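From the pipeline queue, job 12 of 40. The input is one protein chain; the requested action is below.

Action: predict structure.
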Amino acid sequence: MRLDIEPEVFASADPVATIDLIILTLDGRHEWQPSLPVASAAVQFVARQVPALSEYMQKVLVEAANPATPAAAAAKVRAGDLRAVLADLSKPAVLVVENRIGDGGFVRAVAAALRDQRIVDALQGDNDWLRLSNGGGCGQMPDLAAEECRAFSMLVRVAVLFDSDRVEPDEPSPHHDKVAKCREAGVREVHLLTWRMMENYVPFPVWERHFPARINQIEELRTRIPRQRGYQNLKDEFGRRNMPKRMFPDDLPLTEEDFAELGPGVVTELRELLAMIHRIL
């Protein structure tokens, strides 16, 4: 998560929490792009309290003096809320999905294909930066999202990913009420897939890996226009009993072009999904 640490934090009476906060940015867990005055205040704090971090703070100071990009919107960190915010930032962010194995593999594959190394790293087990929460079906996801929100006090770092379950491109999703319930529970970040379900975003090389004896069926699928293919129930077409639990094999590297082949707008939507995850991460 991108942070905006107020200068008063570095003059507060809680140096231990301030040091822990700085370390979260040093480790790369959270992003910090301070203004020059804030960076200067942080340098002075570190010189007094923990000189071992001086080298890192000098890099922060140089970057503040020569910003490469404009600072994006960030979560405010104030002295009065420091302990509570630090507790929230120290927990893993939570992405609620219908199926942790299937949808989790989808998010991992998309992040790797679109070269989003931060999300790839966040999903590694030893990092524990991003946790996938299993919804057990769309119906339970709003309640689960509400429960996950209650674990945070200041910064609610929870997002939800829904299948749309649309059967036609121009019809409303039957899950709009669930999206609304998530927002009422405090979840600001919700992504409702445009196409029917995660399987409609599976690139053709993945289908070829799982169903090598059905190449003709896959080629026929490839010829369909996206507005048709994106809303068909591919689980039924390939047989629900035949569908792998892990749709995206770990040893099958995918590229942006593999997802772009599915149709116009797919890569744009997937980048929006990753951007949503970054906002809670």
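Job complete. Residues 266-280 form the longest helix (15 residues).
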